[in-house]
Amino acid sequence: MRNPPPDAQRGGGARWGVVLLVAAALFLNYVDRGALPLAAPLIQDEMGFSERQLGLLMSAFFWSYALLQIPAGWLAERIGAQRVLGAGLALWSGATFLTGFAHSFTTLLLLRLVLGVGESAGFPSVSKVLASVVPIGSLGRANGIVAFGYLFGPAVGTYIGGLLMVQFGWRSAFWVFGALSLLWLLPWGRVQLPRPSRPADAVHHPPLRELLRQPALWATSLGHFSSNYTFYFLLTWLPLYLVRERGFSMGAMANMAGRVYLLNALSALLAGWVIDRLIVRAGRADLVYKSSMVAAQIGAVACMLAMALGPPAWALSALFVYQLLLGVSSPGTFAISQILAGPSAAGRWVGIQNAIANLAGVLAPALTGELVQRTHHFTSAFALAAFISVLGIPAWGWMVRHVRPLPWSSPAGPSPRPAPPLLESSAP
Fold first, then answer.
1. How many structural domains compose the chain?
2. Does any domain span residue 418?
């Protein structure tokens, strides 16, 4: 492995500071989006909503969120990821704060849609930033840190939000979360992004039609959709499942859910570091990344079936195992795409991938609400999640053939640009 150039050494501290800030942004992203599912039992008691209405409220966020991923990726590449991410956070924080004043289904529905508009800026902008400033050999660790942020968000949001709701009512959590999220804009406004570590990659933005012709784009999108379905199913319905189906109190539910989300976040942080180390030793990013993704999908199938058909002890154990495996796969979900697309296309690639993947967020809450309304149990919902998890196995294992930078054609002709080395220095 070659040593980093002098400018990379000087800019390393700044780069990792940026990584921590974008991780904090996605931490707030998931705290704010998870507040309504957490409050679902209390909102249902106060406003008398049915399970079907709750499912619509929880899926409404993803209608606008998924739809605007592609425009958000395009804007991040054209006007700058820093501006797009800052504007998105301001919008979603405001929507979160105002939710605390809602008194009708229609108002809650509209605010969930606005929340989705703001949060759509998150992952395309963050992926553009990471692909531009982090060496390829460090993307596992960088995405592990970012994954820790967005997976730690539900842990903190569930625990602190649950305490706030028990003590001061469900509206208080929205006021606190929305107001605190706006504070992130203060350090972000002072950031000066370091120069890209691979400046040649930023010269030419491949046209959209060239992206759409890449089989790997559709493979990462399918694999991400498959894992997202089980993730959003649990993120949106776990509080109600623990309270209604397993008999937990609100306080005990917040404690249990917070623990499983914490395990998820910690495993993602550790996995990012391990992935980079294994790639250095083995020299095969394909093997390391794809193995972690396939193992997580197989494990998700087994865990969903255990939660659907097993006794209570098995179901709760499977919940912890699933969160552990999800954390292991989290760095690869976006690192694979950032490596394939490079800095010149990462924003749009992840925008397209995340748009398709987050259709799972539209489907999972609504389908679960319908199934629970009809059967009065979660068994069929877990069985459906297991079936959809199967789709991720061939997507990550076979449809993504290689994990290396794609040779985008130059604007002057079809000659591909040389792909940068896969393993750059991982020194921060």
1. 1
2. no
- 275-305 pLDDT per residue, tens: 999 988 877 888 899 999 999 999 999 999 9
Which structural domain, as residue segments, surrounds residue 23? 13-196+215-407
Quote the tokens at residue 120.
């759509």
Is 424 part of a structural domain of the chain?
Answer: no
| Amino acid found at 255 | N
Phi, psi of 60, deg, nearest 5:
-60, -35
Q: Hey, what amino acid is at 112?
A: R
Report the alpha-carbon distance of residue 113 to residue 72 in Å, rounded.
Answer: 15
Integer Cα distance of 86 and 73 in angstroms = 14
C-alpha 390/C-alpha 300 separation (Å) is 8
Domain of residue 352, CATH code: 1.20.1250.20
pLDDT of residue 410: 62
Q: Is 0.85 topped by the overall pTM?
A: no
Residue 7 lies in a domain: no
